[in-house]
Write a structure and sequence with these properties.
Layout lengths: L6 H13 L4 E2 L20 E5 L4 E5 L5 E6 L5 E8 L13 H8 L3 E2 L2 E2 H11 L2 E6 L4 E8 L3 H13 L5 H19 L2 H13 L13 H6 L2 H11 L5 E7 L3 H12 L21 E7 L3 E11 L6 H12 L16 E8 L3 E11 L4 H18 L3 H16 L5 H14 L5 H9 L3 H11 L6 E7 L6 E3 L20 H6 L13 E4 L5 E6 L5 E8 L3 H4 L7 H8 L9 H10 L3 E3 L3 E7 L3 H13 L5 H18 L3 H13 L12 H5 L3 H11 L5 E7 L3 H12 L23 E5 L6 E9 L7 H13 L5 H9 L3 E10 L4 E9 L4 H17 L4 H14 L7 H14 L5 H11 L2 H11 L6 E6 L5
Parallel strand pairs: 4-10, 11-15, 18-22, 23-27
Antiparallel strand pairs: 1-8, 2-3, 3-4, 5-9, 5-10, 6-7, 8-9, 12-14, 12-15, 13-14, 16-23, 17-18, 19-21, 19-22, 20-21, 24-26, 24-27, 25-26
């Protein structure tokens, strides 16, 4: 329930959002890249063979290219089918056709209608979604490895027998137009779309993949079917399978599912040429708490032979040892970075700096312009080129530490970059020279062809409180009915069973109280370390020193007592280690460099430096960031939500201000560090290619001398009374669509077994595409683009939240539907079908928590934070397996209070 943000993560997140360039999806987005040439049908299948990279490759007789990569990290598999078509292939006047087709792929096919597809997706329990870019549309599933054949059958039916009914499109159009409103509400999206139109004028890349409301109003099922018929073919697709599978059996499953689908003669894409970029200056108001000054340049695309050199140039410019980042410690920018975003045939790069609200953006822009000009004229530091190359290669080595990440890595290389494997990407990086990087810099950083932009914060008004809302309207929705699955699916998913118990980690407690958890894995030659010190700033910051925890966090950027900022970063670069220190700390490094990386992490974590000049810069930057943050719509929205749920005077309502930050001293910061950074509140999780014995020995050497100072602080928030209903509205001038949260405090603790029962019920109510909320608010009514409900826990508090985005005229209708669905769970037992589906989903989800190093570590750290045992997933599985519909109904009656939900709306001034 904490509502305060630190400026450091906030600024970084905004910068990435501003330039990231969204792919279009209903959920997670995969990065876009090149658009390979159309493929003609293959004459005959090629025998599969195991290459040095251990991937099994095959091309079916219909032209479908298949890559299977084994990874035994967890009993999980990810499939990604990449269709080599996107928004660039849309008919004139209909820029969102590829995006709309992607949505319709979830509306069912002959032999598997939309209800059956939703039922299957829920029972599989994994993650499934899609995204659309200019040249590639991806569909991906992550599911238990045993269900691979089911997932492949789903994709084959969608490839060959998509329904595409006009009635389904009429429903989906409302949802996709909500997505358009959501993205047009983002200053980052508006900047990106204008930048793209300027950079790539007169080419297919001039428009992004989103589409427009007018074009969707003109779109019908016939147009979508024509697009699908032209481009959705096995010989225009690449299927990547990664995970705990037997490659021969997996390939047999692929042939059984896809082998009979005929190839097609694909359309020929028209060539295009790029004219020179016309210089332009963009000025955009934003609801961000900071301003952004940017210079954008056209750069090589990811199919270009210069891609790797351009990427390394971007890395050099973003290096914390470089001149651009130096604007931050000098106090000239709140943050600074260079972001390179390649598309297939073209790309762009953006140099940007963040300045405080009311600050001098033009002055910062001038400094950035001078740095870029110096690089273009004098070249880049050779040592930074070598450091960037090492880091890129090390990151590629990490690809096996996530099953879905491994599938994505292969998809990027094959479908987006037109290469044979991630190893080919590595070879390209290895071949880059300093001369290559300097040549790219001298070519692209032409001041006559730069697009300048200034994103300036604006006020959006103060939040407005209202009275509690009344009862819901009456809805006569159709009763739930069982959804019969096809025989091939029902047979595969007929039996519920408990998943295999989670692997038991090696846990030890050092004499100083530090908890060490080691999960040895052999899937990659890397080691990842994740640490967390239990801190609650609202409980630990001395009165009048609000913001000291944020200030201390930023001081870790300045190295250690033995190595200043530049020397420390060079030491990390020398071993290609990714390190971050603070209350949450981490290290990713090659196995052979673990001890060296750990020594650097411990030096940074245990001996941070508080130089007077740096402290003053960080203090000013933190205060300046807060000055904009406190009036930003996102912050006001978050704070209004917290204020509505917790009582007056609660610690969660403490607030750092520019005044409290500027009153802090170095002594205050050092005192907070000494009191709050303690080994007896610290947990370290190590996952990867390392033995528990080696890990324990190394941790003892690096952290064993760390001693706690003073008594253990009380850091658990006090319990709070149950809230009552209220309504608040936060104006946001830059938004076209409203963001709505319904929330309430619950009375149970995370140790109460009913929390498992509520989680199972929430799976039915508001989790995923088959949930009641998704069905009623999106599929049936089209009131929202997305909706979800969730349960949140700490050691002393719990809460229930429903979140959705809607146009102003749909806010009340959506809210009433939420209350109707929540009360329905309380008034009558959920159906047997719903209960079985929810159990299947949650039981199959549990192995997903072991499918990446990050997931393994974060699960362990989360359990420690909650004071729960590490075998909690196995305990949860048994509860889910044995829970009855009557128990779900009773738990929702006991703990949920629909009439006490608070409502907070962030949206256009005319909304609410």
């Amino acid at each position: 329930m904490r509502d305060r943000m630190t400026t450091r993560p906030l600024i970084t997140g905004l910068m990435l959002a501003a330039i990231g360039g969204p792919a279009l999806a209903a959920g997670p987005v995969l990065p876009g890249a090149p658009d390979p040439k159309p493929m003609l049908p293959a004459a005959a299948p090629t025998p599969h063979a195991t290459a040095p990279d251990s991937a099994v490759r095959a091309t079916l007789s219909n032209g479908l290219r298949v890559v299977i990569v084994q990874d035994r990290l967890a009993p999980v598999v990810t499939t990604e089918i990449n269709y080599l078509a996107g928004s660039n292939d849309a008919p004139a006047g209909f820029p969102g056709t590829a995006h709309a087709t992607e949505h319709m792929m979830f509306r069912g096919s002959d032999g598997l209608d939309k209800d059956q597809l939703s039922e299957l997706g829920a029972k599989l329990g994994g993650e499934y979604n899609a995204d659309t870019t200019e040249t590639v549309t991806q569909y991906y599933y992550t599911a238990p490895a045993d269900d691979l054949a089911v997932v492949l059958r789903i994709e084959a039916l969608r490839m060959n027998r998509l329904s595409l009914k006009q009635a389904d499109w009429d429903k989906e159009r409302g949802a996709i137009e909500q997505e358009v409103s959501r993205d047009l509400s983002s200053p980052a999206y508006n900047y990106l779309s204008q930048l793209q139109a300027t950079m790539f004028a007169g080419t297919p890349y001039e428009h992004d993949a989103l589409g427009t409301r007018p074009s969707f109003d003109k779109t019908d099922a016939k147009l979508l079917r024509d697009f699908w018929s032209r481009w959705y073919a096995p010989n225009n697709a690449i299927l990547v399978i990664a995970g705990d599978v037997d490659p021969d059996k997996a390939l047999a499953n692929v042939k059984a599912a896809f082998g009979d689908i005929p190839a097609k003669v694909l359309p020929v894409r028209k060539d295009f040429s790029l004219g020179a970029v016309k210089p332009q200056t963009l000025s955009l108001p934003t609801d961000y708490p900071i301003g952004l000054a940017t210079l954008a340049y056209r750069m090589p695309g990811s199919k270009s032979p210069d891609f790797a050199a351009a990427d390394i140039l971007g890395d050099v410019l973003s290096s914390e040892r470089g001149a651009l980042y130096a604007l931050v410690p000098s106090g000239e920018a709140l943050a600074a970075q260079f972001l390179y975003r390649p598309k297939p045939d073209v790309g762009f790069g953006v140099a940007l700096g963040a300045f405080p609200k009311g600050g001098d953006g033009e002055k910062l822009l001038g400094r950035i312009r001078g740095i870029i000009a110096d690089i273009a004229h004098n070249g880049v530091p050779p040592e930074l080129v070598e450091a960037a190359r090492r880091r890129e290669l090390a990151q590629l080595s990490n690809r096996n530490d996530s099953i879905s990440g491994l599938a994505q890595s292969w998809s990027n290389a094959l479908a987006f970059q037109g290469l044979s494997s991630p190893d080919a990407v590595a070879a390209a990086y290895k071949a880059v020279t300093v001369a290559d990087v300097n040549r790219i810099a001298a070519t692209v950083f032409d001041p006559a062809h730069v697009v300048t932009a200034m994103l300036t914060p604006q006020d959006s008004g103060k939040p407005i409180a209202g009275k509690g809302f009344g009862g819901a309207e009456s809805f006569a929705s159709a009763p739930d009915k069982p959804v019969p699955l096809p025989d091939w699916a029902s047979t595969a998913l007929a039996t519920l069973h408990l998943p295999e118990p989670s692997p038991v980690p090696v846990v030890s407690i050092l004499p100083n109280g530090l908890r060490l958890i080691v999960q040895q894995q052999h899937v990659t030659n890397t080691v990842s370390l994740y640490g967390r010190i239990r801190q609650v700033a609202d409980m630990q910051e001395p009165k009048g020193q609000e913001g000291v925890s944020s200030l201390v966090e930023r001081m870790f950027d300045y190295g250690s007592e033995s190595k200043d900022r530049l020397a420390f970063q060079k030491a990390l670069d020398d071993i290609a280690a990714d390190e971050d220190a603070g209350s949450s700390f981490s290290l990713k490094v090659l196995s052979r460099q673990f001890d060296a990386g750990l020594a650097l992490l411990a030096d940074n974590e245990l001996h941070p430096v508080f130089p007077a000049d740096a402290f003053k810069v960080v203090q000013l930057q933190t205060a300046a960031g807060l000055a904009g943050l406190l009036g930003s719509p996102n912050y006001l929205f978050q704070r209004a939500t917290t204020r509505a749920v917790v009582p007056a005077g609660d610690p969660a309502l403490r607030e750092a201000t520019p005044q409290t930050v500027m009153a802090l001293t170095e002594a205050d910061a050092k005192a907070f560090y000494a009191a709050a950074y303690r080994p007896d509140l610290t947990t370290i999780v190590i996952v990867g290619d390392i033995t528990p014995e080696h890990a324990r020995s190394a941790i003892e050497q690096a952290f064993g001398g760390w001693k706690a100072v003073g008594p253990t602080p009380a850091i658990d928030m006090p319990a709070i009374p149950l809230n009552v209903a209220s309504r608040s509205y936060v104006p946001d001038r830059s938004s076209l669509q409203s963001n709505i949260v319904l929330k309430e405090a619950l009375g149970l603790k995370v140790t109460d077994p009913d929390h498992f029962t509520l989680s199972l019920g929430n799976e039915i109510l508001g989790s995923g595409f088959s949930s009641r909320l998704y069905r009623d608010l999106r599929v049936k009514s089209g009131y929202v683009y997305s909706v979800s409900s969730s349960l949140g826990w700490s050691r002393t508090r719990s809460e229930y939240t429903v979140s959705y985005g809607a146009d102003a005229q749909n806010i009340g209708k959506a809210r009433d539907l939420v209350i109707h669905d929540l009360e329905a769970v309380q008034q009558q037992p959920v159906t047997d079908g719903e209960l079985t589906r929810a159990k299947a989903s949650l039981l199959r989800q549990l192995p997903m928590g072991r499918a990446s190093f990050d997931a393994i570590a974060y699960e362990d750290l989360h359990l420690v934070d909650l004071g729960l045992p590490l075998d909690q997933p196995d305990v949860a599985a048994r509860h889910y397996f044995n829970t009855t519909a009557a128990q779900v109904q009773a738990a929702f009656k006991a703990w949920l209070r629909p009439k006490d939900l608070v409502e907070v709306v962030q949206g256009p001034p005319t909304g609410g």
